[in-house]
Amino acid sequence: MSQSSQFALLAQRRFGPFFWTQFLGAFNDNVFKTALVTILTFDALSWTTLSPGLLNNLIPGLFILPFVLFSATAGQLADKFEKSGLARCVKLLEIAIMAVAAIGWITHEVWLLIAAVVGMGLHSTLFGPVKYAYLPQQLAPEELVGGNGLVEMGTFVGILLGEVLGAVMVVHQPGGVQLVACVTLVIAAAGWLFSRRIPHSPAPEPGLKINWNPFTETVRNIGFTRRNRMVFLAVLGNSWFWFYGAVILAQFPVYAKDYLHGDHSVFVLLLTVFSLGIGAGSLLCERLSGHKIEIGLVPFGSIGLSVFGFDLYMASVAYGNTAPVDLAGFIAQQGSLRILFDCLAIGVFGGFYIVPLFAFIQTRCDRKHVSRTIAGMNILNALFMVVAALFAMILLRAGLTVPQIFMATALLNVAAASYIFSRAPEFLKRFWAWLPLRAIRRT
After folding, report:
1. In whole angstroms, how far apart are CA 385 and each of 57, 65, 141, 217?
2. Tell me: the pLDDT tens digits for 370-410?
3. Distance (Å, rounded) from C-alpha 286 to C-alpha 270?
């Protein structure tokens, strides 16, 4: 398999339309959410009396709440029904949600916009099991790392572009909020058009009887995921990454404004650098793994998450500027490049961490239950992200600064990694085997 083969997948119908469908979904999520967070951070008094810090942690929490409630049902649907048709239905739902959001933007009704946040969370909940169960159906085992790398790269580039576009459009004068309302509708429609090109992907268990009770099915789904110990520990590792990322990213708006003393362009820069790091790390996984599923990259990624998370705290403490700055002014400040490098490195090592975990889960679980396994993972991801929002809000209430939250999260990552790798020593064994192989390949 050639090094460039993962990019060749983009030209193939079995992967290309699916890639752009999921890319536009991630893109639209983040145009909408970032526009909302930005306007509520930098123009809060015109919209609500709630504090920006509270809203910046509340909105991501509400977005992932549907993952907790409906992931088990979504997993059953993805195992029972053909996936391309299901993807098209989900994209039609996205168009309807963005129409509701457009009304909220135009009328300045914050709670209507927050309802749309929950709606987009439901959209992502329904698409998640389809997204990751589709890949092992359409890709050969040796293509899974490259395919997952492209999906993760596309997701985080979509996040990056969405965050940049959302933050820039919403503050555009005149008519920024109207512009956001129109653009999000157009992106949703484009995603639906691409979904019409996704090839037929048969249901693995069409005779499955749906349990519509989300609570009993959630318990059963998590119980099923736990049957395979290694898969369950990989799922826990995946969920921990979303806890870590949710805590870090939720602080960026207030961090940029109150600690770096930047305008919204500094906030956009932080998001850009972090997302580019995730994309680069995801694409590098195929090269570093030798074009196979290499779980030795997971401990390597975890080390980087702690090292550079802690250094982000140290760099923030050392940053001395107290005067308001724009993008150019921030970059000119002493210590700014160290902060940006830490954000980039956290993203790169996050890519090293997450891509092999996805491929490992897809190949180690029962083929007939891939969607429900992914749904179980999404439930845990959502629970971890809800806890992340609560964790950050509790620390803020306790008087910790945003840089101190970065430090606490980096230290907590050491504890989480120690637990997972002690219970699943295969990850560390592969890490110690992978290191000398990398040294040999470089010589």
Report:
1. 10, 9, 30, 20
2. 777 777 787 888 788 888 888 988 998 898 999 999 999 99
3. 26
Classify residue 139 as left (phi > 0), alpha (psi -120 to 50) or beta. Answer: beta
Query: Residue 126 is encoded by which pair of tokens?
Result: 């329904």
What single-letter amino acid sits at 1?
M
> How much is the pLDDT for 44?
55
**Which of 114, 97, 129, 135 has its CA nearest to residue 375?**
129
Walk me through the domains of the chain, giving residue ranges and CATH numbers. 5-202+218-442 (1.20.1250.20)
- Copy the structure tokens of residue 278: 């995730």
336-354 per-position pLDDT tens digit: 999 999 999 999 999 889 8
Q: What is the pLDDT of residue 144?
A: 76
State the pTM of this model: 0.74
pLDDT at residue number 50 = 64
Q: What is the pLDDT of residue 185?
A: 95
Q: In whole angstroms, give the CA distance from residue 3 to residue 13.
A: 20
Contact assessment for residue 279 and residue 129, using Cβ atoms and an 8 Å cutoff: no
pLDDT at residue 304 tops 90: yes
